Automatic annotation (TrEMBL):
<feature type="transmembrane region" description="Helical">
    <location>
        <begin position="254"/>
        <end position="277"/>
    </location>
</feature>
<feature type="transmembrane region" description="Helical">
    <location>
        <begin position="85"/>
        <end position="109"/>
    </location>
</feature>
<keyword id="KW-0472">Membrane</keyword>
<feature type="transmembrane region" description="Helical">
    <location>
        <begin position="170"/>
        <end position="190"/>
    </location>
</feature>
<feature type="transmembrane region" description="Helical">
    <location>
        <begin position="222"/>
        <end position="242"/>
    </location>
</feature>
<keyword id="KW-1133">Transmembrane helix</keyword>
<feature type="transmembrane region" description="Helical">
    <location>
        <begin position="21"/>
        <end position="39"/>
    </location>
</feature>
<protein>
    <submittedName>
        <fullName>Uncharacterized protein</fullName>
    </submittedName>
</protein>
<feature type="transmembrane region" description="Helical">
    <location>
        <begin position="135"/>
        <end position="158"/>
    </location>
</feature>
<keyword id="KW-0812">Transmembrane</keyword>
Amino acid sequence: MGRARDIMRRSIFTFLKDFQLFTLFPCLIAFSYAVSVLMSQSLVSSSHVFVLIHGRMRSLFLAAGIPPSSEIFAFFNLKLSETVFTFLIALPFSFSFLLLAKASVIRALDHRRLEKSYPFSSWLSEFNTLCVTQLWNSLVMLSANATSFCILSISFNLFDVLGLSSKGSILLLSATGLVIYSIVLANSYITCKLALVLSGMEKQGGFASILKAFFLIRGRTLTALSLAVTLSLGLAAIEALFQYRVAKAYHESMTLSSSMVLEGMLVSYLYSILLVLDTVNDCVFVESCRNDPPERLPIACIPRSFSRASLNFLADDRDQVADQVERRKDNRHPQMEMY
């Protein structure tokens, strides 16, 4: 937790140091994505698409052998349907405005580190790389969800065959399955987040960035999870604020006033600020991982299905990081070379 606290402090300091830069251009780009996410959650109760998604998910659970009497999976089905609905509504904005905002933040930090001026048009060179990586991230998250769902389905059917279909057994299996699902999803989420930042910093996207991010967080998973949970709680708090101040007031009066619009815009802007801070935090975390003494990548543990080019790409990156660490150690004690 101490390491996560230091990274968070450094991220906030970096954000406040260039406050005008980060709150002007990247936040305005991410504003559209923030509005789509907040508005999609307000449309859940009155949308026919959500009812259709919820019914399809329930049918899928029944077909997989998961008992409908489980209250845990009833709640899980509801939240998963809300997540799918929000993802579909915000999908066009996540592949356009959100990636543009992340590219502008990564480019701004890169130019600030190199002590160069920051042209606003320079983020376009990273957009295509981020878009390719985002597509791979979507496939990875889909695969993680599908794998977890298949394991849950096999477990429930196995318990049914063995005659362990009592209420206590179902409750125990449901709780265990949700814990395992949360662990798999959390690790996939932080890996995909860091892969997106790595692809923008190194100008090379695709599955190689996901593989590098996976090895980058080895031994630092707890720190990455702590940072992700902290910022996710902040985003959830802003979403709850929007529901309480804007959505609830609109449903009670059924009229849209100018104060509601202004308050909704303010909350959406706060949401976009936190999205930008999240990207800054990911960049700082990646830099801190690179500055640590690098560990040798377990090449023997990598499946043979990966190409030799991908393995060489990872090994070259490891050697580059090691050289950077050695140069920094030498620069810290320049007078020792005289003796």
